[in-house]
Amino acid sequence: MNKEDGMNATAENIQVAEEDRLRADLYNYLGTMLAGPPDQMLLDQTAQLSGDDTPLGQSISALAKVAGLTKSESAEREFNKLFIGLGRGELLPYASYYLTGFLNEKPLATLRQDMAVRGLTQAENVYEPEDNIASLMEMMGALIAGRFGTPASLEDQKTFFNRHIAPWARHFYADLEAAKNSVLYAAIGQAGRVFMEIEVEAFRMSGD
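User: That's the sequence. What structure does it adopt?
Assistant: Structure tokens below.
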């Protein structure tokens, strides 16, 4: 993902609360893991993660344990079975598909409109429709952290999340968690599902 303006923004001159930085980091991590199979370095880094006794912390600890037992070759085979397959993978990780049953439908068009308003464009080397789960996780992380300019307000984060992520991401992550070819990605699915549940509730409470 690129932004047409604001490319001179740097991490040094953007002030983001620690809690929001951690949220952005988790969004970006999920986006990376869902964009393509992890290499051994990323698996090793994941294996070093630790969580607390909260549901999210426990899911992170479980993910770390599975990552420590996973080699990059098996992660790639698993990713291919889940998302590529022969003709198609076990899962189709697109908002349009989850919300309408078809690809490239209204949810994608709505997302493209919102991306245009924010000056966001798909990276040149990415050919997936923009409403895939990896891109949406990356976009949300970028909005929170102000990766391409001023961090998005909580209200703007809430609008984007409720419009493009909340209606289907928990369902996708639950499907990933339960998919027959999921091992490493079952743990990713659990962490993603719990994180989405937390975000839904936090944004709901922000409007009270």
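The first strand starts at residue 2 and ends at 3.
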